[in-house]
């Protein structure tokens, strides 16, 4: 009698060995080698022409355009943590330029035009997808406000249109158009050129390109103070160097581009900002089949949602009202946001929340950024992008690079000077900012 | 979710409260002589401390009274609550 058990064991062993070999072969074919590092990790030099404080999207973009547009490559980007670990990693990746006022349309549309060629520019696929951004309207005043904004957008060369319920159903069939819900959808505004990008790729692409042009990206380097030279008759003095956890770094000019921590940094230089820091939360579902073809925002019930390339639904929640640096918010903010999302998209009731997170946003009183000079000579600031900075990344970097290169605010940045809170020339974009604050 | 101790009602859920921003911001004593820079300071500039921060809360769904608190903006821990008009 053959030993069936032994034969079976041998066969099982052969099969297992074969599987393992096949697996090894398959992984060699399927899994790539560890990719080349995208940037160096240099030791900081003792002196730079320009030091940028903050290695997020805006800081990296600024460094890139300083090198690319202005030929200034003796530049350091100082990052307390790791590159692109703050709000560039925490946003909902929505891109649009449909802001109300001329100053805003100009800078956000400049950004959108840069987005449209950014993958080529940086030779890195940032997965920019112009799937359109739809703003739902729920009340008569919503409709009037949207009509005003759509016309203002068109006058400024920003693509914008008003949608009927039929249009909405055609563009995004999963929106609940039932008029019996608490906040029925009455119409929408639409920007076809809006969309999403892969936020991590954006940061990595800028970082790699800046590094290749000679910019030093210095991680794990916390700014602890500023060395400001005071001379009689020179006001608040002139920046001479940045004190860091890795020593003193002299700088010709310094740019503070630190989002949520802008007030903390500015205070080290004796500067007061009209900025409040708040948590802003977002969340994702599990990976789903494609169900959501566009980006939908509703300011009235507070939903903004898209479906990422991988398949997860990405939803933004509101800000917590209290000041915080904790990078986390309260659960009821998410609960409130989800209840609105499920009413607008009944199909989402079957999805699960897989991950929630928070970032710290720097909110200005008029929901517009602060870009330009500070009272300290050669110390410039780019902050206050609040809840909507991701979409502006290329333009923020573009204008800040020009400002740091020339010492004069770029024309697109001029209206965003810190002085506007004294002159009263505010740029009130609470209506176009997605998140109420 | 914060658990906030109202000085009058005791510990209650955050959703019962409204936030009022920085505490102890005085209205200009003589508004007629205040210049633009001082108005900007009063209207727009606020402390944005990382760490203990004196702030106002309103118990909207409770006793409907304002009070002040010192809360750590990194840990969210409430270090003190005290009635409006008292010093920090």
Written overview of the protein:
The complex is a heterodimer of chains A (437) and B (88). Chain A is of the alpha/beta class. In chain A, 31% of the residues lie in helices and 24% in strands. Chain A contains eleven helices and 18 strands. Chain A has helices at residues 4-30, 57-70, 102-116, 118-122, 140-155, 165-171, 199-212, 262-268, 331-344, 393-406, 420-423, and strands spanning 47-53, 75-78, 94-95, 133-137, 161-163, 187-191, 195-196, 216-218, 223-229, 238-244, 247-256, 276-287, 295-298, 303-307, 312-319, 353-363, 370-373, 379-383. In chain A, strands 1, 2, 8, 9, 10, 11, 17 and 18 form an eight-stranded mixed sheet that branches. In chain A, strands 5-6-4-13-14-15-12-16 form an eight-stranded mixed sheet, with helices on both faces. In chain A, strands 3-7 form a two-stranded antiparallel sheet. In chain A, a hairpin with a 4-residue loop joins β13 (295-298) and β14. In chain A, α2 runs parallel beside α7 (199-212), α2 crosses α10 (393-406) and α3 (102-116) crosses α10. Chain B is globular and about 45 Å long. Chain B is built from one helix and six strands; from the N terminus they run βββαβββ. The A-B interface holds A 261, 263-264, 272-277, 321-326, 330-332, 365, 421-424 and B 1-2, 14-15, 18-19, 21, 36-37, 39-41, 43-46, 48-50, 53, 55, 71, 73-76.
Helices of chain B, by number, come to 1
Q: What is the helix content of chain B?
A: under 10%
Radius of gyration of chain B: 15 Å
What is the C-alpha radius of gyration of chain A, as a whole number of Å? 25 Å
Portion in beta strands of chain B: 35-45%
Total count of strands of chain B: 6
Distance between the termini of chain B: 24 Å
Unreliable stretches of chain A = none
The description of the largest β-sheet of chain A is: 8 strands, mixed
| Quaternary structure annotation | heterodimer
Structural class of chain A: alpha/beta
Order of helices and strands of chain A: HEHEEHHEHEHEEHEEEEHEEEEHEEEHH
Shape of chain B: globular
Query: What is the share of helical residues of chain A?
Result: 25-40%
Major sheet summary line of chain B: 4 strands, antiparallel
